[in-house]
Amino acid sequence: MLIKIYPENPNPKAIEQVADVLRRGGLIIYPTDTVYGLGCDITNHKAIEKICQIRNIKPDKANFSFICYDLSHISDYIKPIDNATFRVLKKALPGPFTFIFNANHNVPRLLSSNKKTVGIRVPDNNIAREIVKVLGNPILSTSIHDDDDIIEYSTDPELIEEKYADKVDIVIDGGYGGNIPSTIVDCTSGEFEIVREGKGELELYL
User: Fold this and answer.
1) How confident is the model at residue 112 (pLDDT cuts 50, 70, 90)?
2) pLDDT grade, residue 204 (50/70/90)?
3) Helix and strand tally (H, E) in the chain?
């Protein structure tokens, strides 16, 4: 099912419809401030397993990220951070960054049986953040990759819906997606190590 939602002013009824699908263990494809993502409610183990089957990876080996609504939401899933790290996050988010932190016990066991870290995102996209806000839980997320040798990520929601119609419950058309992923920053040592250069320049915030 393809649903049109406008990022400038997301329709509350449409957002609630998407959140209800997630609550029931459904999968969605949705826009972020970088590329389109495939996601589910992080508390639903069966849904997480479905995503792993689609991506052909084992849950405990997966490098999924959590889409959170804001900084207070992030603190529910990571071990305490110092004030300097918090100040960087406050300036950088919402934004096109994935920050890797040491995970706390709230991270679902299915994901953390062999993993001590978690990737956190607060995208600068009203659709993604409103879904998380209404759902009440983060969305587990992984990027939608394209089969094209040149274009790494799928950007057209209608083409994405054609490809994934039998695998997901809802594809949200929030306009064309980007083709540059988030910048990944490892914060597990207390320093800021750029793991992958993507959209966004963290040095502007240091």
Assistant:
1) low
2) very low
3) 7, 10
The residue whose two tokens read 């002013």 is 9
Tokens of 142: 């992984």
Contact assessment for residue 186 and residue 195, using Cβ atoms and an 8 Å cutoff: yes
| Residue found by looking up tokens 């997630």 in the block | 22
pLDDT digits (tens, 9 = 90+) for 1-51: 999 999 999 999 999 999 999 999 999 999 999 999 999 998 898 999 899
* pLDDT the model gives residue 98: 94
Q: Dump the DSSP string for 131-190.
A: HHHHHSSPEEEEE-B-S-SS--B---HHHHHHHHTTT-SEEEE-S---SS-BEEEE-TTS
Packed helices 126-135 and 12-23: angle between N→C axes, nearest 10 degrees: 60
Largest CA-CA distance found in the chain, in angstroms, rounded: 46
Q: At 181, list the tokens.
A: 């992923």
Omega within 30 of 0 (cis) for the link into 108? no
- Tokens describing residue 173: 């058309």
Is the distance from CB of 93 to CB of 122 less than 8 angstroms? yes
**Tens digits of residue pLDDT in 57-103:** 876 667 788 999 998 888 888 888 888 888 899 999 999 999 999 98
User: Is pTM, for the whole model, over 0.90?
Assistant: no
Check if the beta carbon of residue 15 is closer than 8 Å to that of residue 106. Answer: no
Task: Specify the DSSP element, H or E, that contains 59.
Answer: none
- Within the chain, residue ranges assigned H as helices are 12-23, 45-55, 71-74, 83-92, 109-112, 126-135, 157-164
